[in-house]
C-alpha cells in the first residue's frame, strides 16, 4: 500500500463567490517528486496555501503527514517538517540575507548547516545585502536555500525557479533531484515550466479550474498516452464513434491525429479496420498531454 | 528568534521615537532656567499638557504590532501578502507571533516613557519645581497605564490591518478620542487623556487611579480581543 504524504479529498475554496478549488482530489506518494501543473489561476497556489495552513478550505479535507492541516496543534508540527518556497518570494525587507538565515535557523531543529553553507556558496548569495537589493532570481535562490536547509521531510515549492536564468534552473533542478535521492525528501512543486517538470518529476498532477484532471506516475501516464497518426485512403471515412480512450481527434485532409489516453490496442485495431488506412503510433510528451487536457477541459 | 525579528522590525521606529524624545528634552532647555512668576504658570506645564501625551500616542502607534502582517498592502492584489506567507510557514503559532511582537513593542513604549520622565527630571529645574521625585515616578506610572489602552488598541488593529494602516488607524482614532475628551463632557474616570494632562500627578498632585484602572481594564479587553481574532484564524 502506498503512503501518501499529502492527501486531499473534495477540497473546495472560493474567493468572494468565485471558485478556486472545486473538489480537488490530490495524492502525493511519500518520497516522490511531484510536479503540480496548471494554467494561471487553475488553483495551484490556493492548493499550496491550504496545505500550508495559510488558507482555510470551504469544504473537503486536506491531510499532510497523515494529519489534518486544520488541526491548530498539529499544524505547527506539520510546518516544522516542511520546507516552503512562496510564490512571490517575498522576505523581510528590513533584514539582510544573513539575518533572514539567522532568524530561520533556530526554528528548525533539523537545520542542515552543511546545506546552508553549500548553497550560500553555490548560489553566490551576498550575505550582507538587504532583501530589497536582491533580484528576483537571487530571492528565489535564497528561498530555496531556506527551504532546503530546514532538513524537511517535505518540500513544497511554489514556482521555485521563477526568475532564474536557464543555467540556474538547470543547477537548481539538479540539486533538488540530489536532495530527493539522498535524503528521501518528498518534493511537491508547482511550475509552468513543463520541460523542467518532465526532467525531474516522477509523478504529476494537472489541475484545471480547481479540479485534478490528470494525476499519477509520469511513466505510467506517458505509457498510457499515445499519439496515433492515421493516413486514410481517398474514399475512406472515419468511424462515427471511437473506442473509449480517445481524447481528441484532429483531421487535416487525409491525415487524422488521435490522442489516446488508454485502451490503445483497441483503438489501433479500430483504426486499422478502416479500409486502406495506415496507422502509426508515437509517444507523447508531457507538453502534449498538458495542452490537450487544459484546452479541452 | 521571534524577539530578534521583532527587534529588527521596530528598531528604526524606536530610533525615531527616541529621537523625538531627545528633541523634546532638548527643547526643555528653553524652560530650564525659567522660573514661574509668583502665582504664574509653570513653563513646564506645556510639556505635561501637550508634548508628552503626543509622544505617548506616537510611541503606541509606531511601536505596536502583531508580527504577522508587517508590510503595506498597497501593492498587493489580495489576501496574505509580502513576507506574511513566509512568517506563517514557520512552525510558530499566530498566538506566539502576536505575543512576542506585542511584548517587544510594549517594552519599547515603557522604555521610552521611562527615559522621557528621567530626562525631564534631570534636564529641567522647572519640572523639579512642579513635583516631588515620587510624583514624577507616579507620573511615569500614569503615562504607562494610560498608554496601555492605546497600545493594545494598536495591537488589535494589527490583527487585521497591515503595519502602515495600523499606525495611521491608531494615530487618527486616538487623536479623535483626545479631541472628543476635551470638547465633550467625557467622564473623568474614563478620560485617559485628562489623566495624562491636567489630572496627572504633576498637576493634580494625586494619582488618577480610576482613569489608570479604566485604561488597564480596557487594555486587557482589547488585548483579549486581539488574541481571539488571531485564535480564530489559527489552524
Task: Spell out the blueprint of helices and strands.
The complex is a heterodimer of chains A (297) and B (235).
Chain A: E1 4-15, E2 18-29, E3 33-38, H1 44-51, E4 59-64, E5 67-68, H2 72-80, E6 82-85, H3 97-104, H4 113-122, H5 136-148, E7 154-158, H6 166-183, E8 186-191, H7 194-200, E9 203-208, E10 211-217, H8 218-224, E11 226-231, E12 246-252, E13 255-260, H9 264-272, E14 278-283, H10 286-296
Parallel strand pairs in A: 3-8, 3-9, 6-7, 7-8
Antiparallel strand pairs in A: 1-2, 1-4, 4-5, 9-10, 11-13, 11-14, 12-13
Chain B: H1 2-27, H2 29-32, H3 45-63, H4 84-88, H5 94-123, H6 125-130, H7 133-158, H8 163-183, H9 192-196, H10 201-204, H11 209-232
Helix pairs in contact in B: 1-3, 1-5, 3-5, 3-7, 3-8, 5-7, 7-8, 7-11
Can you offer a commentary on this structure?
The complex is a heterodimer of chains A (297) and B (235). Chain A has 297 residues and is α/β, with parallel strands linked by helices. Chain A folds into two domains: 4-220, Rossmann fold; 225-296, Alpha-Beta Plaits (2-Layer Sandwich), CATH 3.30.70. Helix content of chain A is 34%, strand content 31%. Chain A contains ten helices and 14 strands. Chain A has a six-stranded mixed sheet with strand order 6-7-8-3-9-10, with helices on both faces. In chain A, strands 2-1-4-5 form a four-stranded antiparallel sheet, covered by helices on one side. Chain A has a four-stranded antiparallel sheet with strand order 12-13-11-14, sandwiched between helices. Chain B has one domain. Chain B has eleven helices and no strands. Residues 74-78 of chain B have low confidence and may be disordered.
Amino acid at each position: 500500500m502506498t503512503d501518501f504524504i499529502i492527501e486531499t479529498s473534495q477540497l473546495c475554496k472560493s474567493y468572494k463567490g468565485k471558485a478556486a478549488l472545486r473538489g480537488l482530489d490530490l495524492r502525493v506518494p511519500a518520497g516522490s517528486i511531484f510536479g503540480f501543473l496548471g494554467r494561471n489561476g487553475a488553483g495551484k497556489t490556493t492548493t499550496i496555501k491550504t496545505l500550508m495552513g495559510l488558507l482555510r478550505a470551504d469544504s473537503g479535507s486536506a491531510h499532510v503527514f497523515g494529519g489534518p492541516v486544520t488541526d491548530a496543534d498539529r499544524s505547527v508540527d506539520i510546518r516544522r517538517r516542511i520546507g516552503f518556497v512562496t510564490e512571490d518570494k517575498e522576505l523581510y525587507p528590513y533584514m539582510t540575507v544573513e539575518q533572514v538565515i539567522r532568524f530561520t535557523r533556530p526554528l528548525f531543529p533539523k537545520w542542515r548547516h552543511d546545506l546552508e553553507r553549500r548553497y550560500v556558496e553555490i548560489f553566490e548569495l551576498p550575505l550582507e545585502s538587504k532583501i530589497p537589493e536582491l533580484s528576483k532570481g537571487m530571492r528565489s535562490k535564497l528561498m530555496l536555500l531556506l527551504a532546503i536547509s530546514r532538513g524537511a521531510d517535505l518540500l513544497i515549492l511554489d514556482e521555485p525557479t521563477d526568475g532564474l536564468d536557464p543555467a540556474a534552473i538547470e543547477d537548481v533542478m539538479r540539486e533538488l533531484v540530489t536532495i530527493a535521492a539522498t535524503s528521501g525528501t518528498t518534493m511537491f512543486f508547482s511550475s509552468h515550466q513543463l520541460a523542467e517538470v518532465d526532467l525531474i518529476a516522477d509523478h504529476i498532477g494537472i489541475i484545471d479550474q480547481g479540479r485534478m484532471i490528470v494525476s499519477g506516475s509520469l511513466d505510467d501516464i506517458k505509457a498510457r498516452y499515445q499519439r496515433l497518426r492515421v493516413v486514410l485512403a481517398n474514399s475512406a471515412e472515419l468511424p462515427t464513434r471511437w473506442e473509449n480512450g480517445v481524447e481528441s481527434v484532429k483531421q487535416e485532409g487525409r491525415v487524422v491525429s488521435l490522442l489516446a489516453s488508454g485502451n490503445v490496442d483497441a483503438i489501433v485495431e479500430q483504426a486499422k479496420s478502416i479500409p486502406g488506412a495506415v496507422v502509426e503510433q508515437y509517444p507523447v510528451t508531457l507538453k502534449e498531454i498538458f495542452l490537450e487536457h487544459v484546452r479541452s477541459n | 528568534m521571534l524577539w530578534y525579528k521583532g527587534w529588527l522590525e521596530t528598531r528604526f521606529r524606536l530610533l525615531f521615537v527616541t529621537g523625538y524624545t531627545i528633541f523634546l528634552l532638548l527643547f526643555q532647555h528653553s524652560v530650564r532656567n525659567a522660573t514661574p512668576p509668583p502665582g504664574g504658570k509653570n513653563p513646564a506645564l506645556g510639556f505635561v499638557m501637550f508634548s508628552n501625551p503626543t509622544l505617548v500616542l506616537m510611541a503606541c502607534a509606531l511601536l505596536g504590532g502583531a508580527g504577522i502582517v508587517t508590510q503595506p498592502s498597497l501593492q498587493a492584489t489580495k489576501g496574505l501578502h509580502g513576507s506574511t506567507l513566509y512568517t506563517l510557514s514557520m512552525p510558530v503559532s499566530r498566538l506566539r507571533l502576536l505575543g512576542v511582537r506585542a511584548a517587544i513593542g510594549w517594552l519599547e513604549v515603557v522604555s521610552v516613557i521611562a527615559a522621557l520622565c528621567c530626562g525631564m527630571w534631570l534636564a529641567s529645574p522647572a519640572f523639579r519645581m512642579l513635583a516631588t521625585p515620587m510624583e514624577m515616578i507616579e507620573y511615569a506610572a500614569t503615562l504607562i497605564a494610560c498608554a496601555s489602552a492605546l497600545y493594545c488598541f494598536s495591537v488589535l488593529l494589527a490583527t487585521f490591518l497591515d503595519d502602515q494602516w495600523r499606525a495611521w488607524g491608531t494615530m487618527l482614532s486616538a487623536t479623535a478620542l483626545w479631541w472628543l475628551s476635551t470638547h465633550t463632557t467625557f467622564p473623568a474616570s474614563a478620560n485617559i487623556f485628562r489623566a495624562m494632562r491636567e489630572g496627572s500627578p504633576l498637576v493634580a498632585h494625586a494619582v488618577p487611579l480610576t482613569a489608570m484602572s479604566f485604561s488597564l481594564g480596557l487594555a486587557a479587553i482589547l488585548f483579549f480581543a486581539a488574541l481571539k481574532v488571531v485564535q480564530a484564524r489559527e489552524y
